[in-house]
Amino acid sequence: MTFTTESLYTFFLQKIEAFTNSKYWILKSTILFFSICIITSFPDYHWYKENKNSLIFEALDWQIQHPFEKLPSKYTTFSKGEMTGTASHLDKRWSRVTIPLIAYSLGFGTFGGIVLQHITGVLFFSVLLSLIYRLTKDKQISFLFGAIFAFIFIGKWSFYDFVYYDGIAYILMLLAMWRKNFIIVFFSVLLASFVDERALVASSMIFVWWYLQNNSIHDFSIRSIFKLNSSAIAVVLAWFAHLVIRYFVLMKYFHLSPGTSGIGLEVVRYNFKYIPMGLFTYLEFAWILIVLMFLHLYHQKRFFLVLLLLASLGLSQIISFLVYDVTRSIAYSFPILFIALYILHHYLEGQKLKKYLLIIAIGCFLLPTHAVFVDGVQWLSPIVPKVFKLL
Predict the structure, then answer these.
(1) Does residue 12 lie in a domain region?
(2) Does 210 map to a domain?
(3) Does 129 map to a domain?
């Protein structure tokens, strides 16, 4: 039997159609994507076992017990080059109070935070599938888009991370895009911004997302800036609420001071050699969606929307290179993929869009997931070597 590109495409779509032809297709797909993440980039539980009593986990547990107090200097003061990324992260945790407050309120420590992040990582795929299906009314597009996330850093990091809790910020940002509900959007963006301030910067893309929902792409112009819906307004109010809480509550009332280590031009110079890998590793071949989006918008002369998206995406990228851990910083820009899919769904015929998504998914699957951290490029390695270390 001769296989052609078209026959392979048809084969995969038929398999996806059969798999999703079920009342519980979102649950089945979520379990599948979770399994893919765990198998292809298995969490290093051996590392956690060896380091659970180390300084960084001691510091995180201390912050849970004292969410509105600055970490003692023993957790943030090291000689230059010693635990650079760890010290910088802990120094800036003074305003990252969402996780400590949740953990303190529910009575769990760092291990409970890891479990919570694993749970939110699973929920991320369910919410993603629900959102994309509501927009496209197409299970195959929804499945392929979810598969792309399962093959790249963003989908895997919730299970691989033991320290930063970025995955909890991811699900909050996704919830802010999920429903047109003022309360959900406002509190999701606000809580995410206090998991990590990079979520605040990246939430500009959530603003654009809701901005698009209230304006036709086909006649989008600078006049559209005056057509805001309640969800877009909720994002803006969350920005103001973050600044008010950060300045008047954390800094003035609780006398917390901002940590500034690991920020600035010295870090940019250090990160310069990682810029290409940093940009590529968080999206891999999913960059194709973003390129296609800009090409179609330019062809349709939607220049104001192009500038708006470039400004939002560019701001997030620039901020990411001012700090260590480039990949996990840029990964907060993931809403741009949802915007790209939303726009391409308007411009492309369904079968053509599915072909692009399938090609991207296969490319991301074949490429092992890597990430740029303070100490270089690391492979988020699969299950086999990790299991042997646990035995």
Answers:
(1) no
(2) yes
(3) yes
Range of the domain at 206: 23-71+87-390
Could you please report the per-residue DSSP string of 136-147? H--HHHHHHHHH
DSSP string, 256-312: -----TT-SHHHHHHHGGGHHHHHHHTTGGGHHHHHHHHHHHHHTT-HHHHHHHHHH
* Residue 143 maps to a domain: yes
- The predicted-structure confidence for 89-115, as pLDDT tens digits, reads as follows 777 788 899 999 999 999 999 999 999
* One-character DSSP codes across 64-112: HHSTTSPPPGGGT---TTSSHHHHHHHHTGGG--HHHHHHHHHT--HHH
Is the pTM of the predicted complex or chain greater than 0.90? Answer: yes
Tens digit of each residue's pLDDT (9 = 90 or more) over 351-364: 999 999 999 999 99
pLDDT of res. 356: 97
What six digits make up the tokens of 201? Answer: 């910067």
Per-residue CA distances from 327 to 210, 245, 276, 284, 379 (Å): 26, 28, 11, 11, 12
